[in-house]
DNA sequence: TGGGTCATGTAACCTGTTACATGATTAG
DNA sequence: CTAATCATGTAACAGGTTACATGACCCA
């Protein structure tokens, strides 16, 4: 996944690993976490596969850099990956923990859901910042059709956050209902 | 995550690896995928940590089995994990692909969102089956407080699916809007 | 003089994926 | 007779996490 994400970014234009990292932080990181070290490792993998090539550029006053470009076979691989519509493996750590929270007492659980509803999980920097970053890059990419899909992922994040809040409220209501039943015994 | 999920299941009562696997398929697998082989590997890890113990039971007519039990330190570890409310790493493969779908043409993308909206992603066996499994195990666990959290995860799945459908419809509308603009040129 | 930016990684470890392996009993 | 159920794994590889490493420039 990450490998193809990086390939997708390089498809917008040539970049250094450092630039990939900074764009990644403002875009893909909203739905995929990765450390800098992993990005550099994946870049080596992409080069080994022949999907990207690199050009060493000496600089004075700042570190030398490696400019990376997608190759023809890299573009082909990106398209192949995009066309593959199989379902993806689910992985929601939040639910894994929720599932077993019956071990903890109701007050702790209510506090948990309250804090979850309050803290934005998808855009820690806020929706506006995410949208601003998307607009900034849309101008660079210069293709409104491509930028639209960036926006779609931001829309998803917003809708997800709203849904999460509703779910939290519902869980809190049901937990409070249980508490009442108990005190009525 | 998986390690602690297995620990949580063993906290309901003693089980064999095989039983963990079957319960897993009807519960945790809705938000976490894992192969049988990984479950057995994690079980070895749990035993190495001293969080579970095993008892070999010889059987005639069917394979011998290993009955697993959570230990005191295992229960402690489970609680420690549950109390740790740090945010989790996000990982939404669906959005990774969506982000770059601008490479494909609008018709393909509309078809993609249509199929996504139609096919239930969280409960491939249907909501009713998931709920039935939860009820069945609730009777076994015999603790309505714990069963409530199982239900919460199913509620989440339902709300997520509805949200996903709305998102798909919205994306389709915007893509169609773009097509109109083009044909009006 | 201290922190942020630019710029690159290595190493060890842990977790997830894919493929393979075995074999008896029981229900249709 | 054949498929499902019970019951256990190993091996190799791919991908993600954590910790560590270097160093010059520029701005406050």
Can you give a write-up of this model?
- The structure is a homodimer of 185-residue chains.
- Chain A is mostly helical and 185 residues long.
- The first copy, chain A, is built from 8 helices and 2 strands.
- The first copy, chain A, has helices spanning 2-10, 17-26, 36-49, 72-83, 93-100, 106-118, 127-141, 144-184, and strands spanning 52-57, 65-70.
- In chain A, strand 1 (52-57) and strand 2 form a beta hairpin.
- In chain A, 27% of the residues are buried.
- At the A-B interface, helix 1, helix 4, helix 5, helix 6 and helix 8 of A face helix 1, helix 4, helix 5, helix 6 and helix 8 of B.
- Chain A binds a DNA duplex (28 and 28 nucleotides) through residues 1-3, 16-18, 21, 33-38, 40-42, 44-45, 59, 61-66, 89.
């Amino acid at each position: 996944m990450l490998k193809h994400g990086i390939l997708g970014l390089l498809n917008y234009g040539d970049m250094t690993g450092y630039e990939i990292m900074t764009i990644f932080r403002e875009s893909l990181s909203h739905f995929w976490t990765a450390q800098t070290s992993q990005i550099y490792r994946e870049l080596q993998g992409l080069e080994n596969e022949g999907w990207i090539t690199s050009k060493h550029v000496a600089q004075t006053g700042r570190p030398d850099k490696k400019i990376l470009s997608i190759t023809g076979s890299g573009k082909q691989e990106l398209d192949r990956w995009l066309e593959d519509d199989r379902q993806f493996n689910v992985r929601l750590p939040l639910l894994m923990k929720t599932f077993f929270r019956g071990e903890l007492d109701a007050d702790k659980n209510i506090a948990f859901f309250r804090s979850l509803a309050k803290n934005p999980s998808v855009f820690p920097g806020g929706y506006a910042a995410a949208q601003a970053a998307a607009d900034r890059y849309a101008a660079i990419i210069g293709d409104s059709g491509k930028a639209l899909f960036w926006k779609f992922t931001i829309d998803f994040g917003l809708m997800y956050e709203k849904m999460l809040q509703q779910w939290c409220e519902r869980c809190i209501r049901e937990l409070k209902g249980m508490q009442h039943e108990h005190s009525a015994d």
